[in-house]
Amino acid sequence: MASVLEVRGGKPLTGEIFVRGAKNLVPKAMVAALLSQETSTLRGVPQIRDVEVVSELLQMHGVEVDYQQEEGELTITPGSLTLPDPIQVDALAGSSRIPILFCGPLLHRLGEAFVPDLGGCHIGDRPVDFHLKVLEDFGAVRNSTPYGMHLTAPKGLKGKPVRLPFPSVGATEQTLLTAVMAKGFTELSNAAMEPEIMDLIAVLQKMGAIISVDMDRTIRIEGVDELHAYRHTALPDRIEAGSWASAALATHGDIFIRGAAQKDMTTFLNYFRKIGGAFDVQDNGIRFWHPGGELQAAVLETDVHPGLMTDWQQPLVVALTQASGLSIVHETVYENRFGFTDALRGMGANIQVYRECLGGLRCRFGRQNFYHSAIIQGPTKLKAADIVVPDLRGGFSHLIAALAAEGTSHVAGIDIINRGYEHFMQKLSKLGADVTMQP
Ligand SMILES: CC(=O)N[C@H]1[C@@H](OP(=O)(O)OP(=O)(O)OC[C@H]2O[C@@H](n3ccc(=O)[nH]c3=O)[C@H](O)[C@@H]2O)O[C@H](CO)[C@@H](O)[C@@H]1O
Ligand SMILES: C=C(OP(=O)(O)O)C(=O)O
User: Fold this and answer.
1) Cα-to-centroid distance, 252 and ligand 1 (Å)
2) What is the pLDDT of residue 439?
């Protein structure tokens, strides 16, 4: 049964917490380790569900994985690989989006791969057509099985020019992980340039890959025959940092986030400041606080990096319910990322969602039937409610709303939050939140 958190809200969150490596890099760096037979070492690894899922999948392929949780150090030894029973792989169906990234490395090392149905947050359709096109263009052959997808590469994998229809993070990573050991040269245009992708490129370069990046979203990869182990410290989780920063704003709090890095959060920090939040960048982290007075409404548009990251949108919307005036939020990355606002309305927030593009950009969803823009009128006093968590960021946002609201809320399905927020219960206690996990 899903766990329920009782939240007695209305208290500012104050204190210090620590963020470790990024959820959107660590599992991919773990997959990259498969490209070598030697032992790779990854540091800053958080104890989150996505890391557990990828560890399980690696172990099913005969890889030794050793995780020292306290130190955050993970060693991965993919000496000799074996193809697991597809039924075993299928047991992980629906748990994460990472398994599709195993394709390139497994095709290189084993000549075949099984991929379970993907999971991840339900914030849109989330097809993998770009991934499959890249793999097939490189020479992979795909078959559906009762236990997910089976791929082979009868003639090996060869580099190709690739142009992504949209700068997809996952499809860019798919191309990188496949092209580094494919025969010949790959020029990837319209690539995603997120900081986590640059960190994955750093990992691959440490392994011996040859990759160059142009500012016009072109990535060039020269395939090599052999890659080696890496030692790497993952970049900090900018989404987790932005989420706790939004919590500081919504609860009138003051949080020092040790490990938060300014260079990966520039766009977030600009919006945080425009809304009226205060921050102070220090050598070892960033302090975020509500400086008193009124917060200001803002116009936000999510976009691929260096735009405002979509995963920050949901926590920021909760903070905007406390800002004076009309805020406009246009979500251009996912077609269905405003479902979480239903619960906020139930708590007293004044939020309307629209099908039209309400920002400066015309996005892919403008002529379709997707509620992908929102207008928020604030400030509204939030009141306690009983809520069910819909997805990772939506869930954290509900938690922030419950912490900001007067009265006692019950937040059900809280386990989803473990997928991307390390030790969030301990962090809440450290920040003085009045919460109890119900049996
Ligand atoms: C594990 C991980 O790193 N997750 C992140 C990753 O997700 P993920 O890699 O799944 O996100 P993508 O960047 O691929 O998706 C962006 C958009 O492209 C579309 N698309 C993508 C692939 C494809 O084959 N076909 C297609 O149409 C998606 O439906 C979506 O509308 O980047 C997202 C955008 O920054 C983040 O919100 C997620 O937190
Ligand atoms: C959408 C997210 O993740 P995933 O791609 O793992 O579902 C997220 O981290 O907000």
Assistant:
1) 32
2) 76
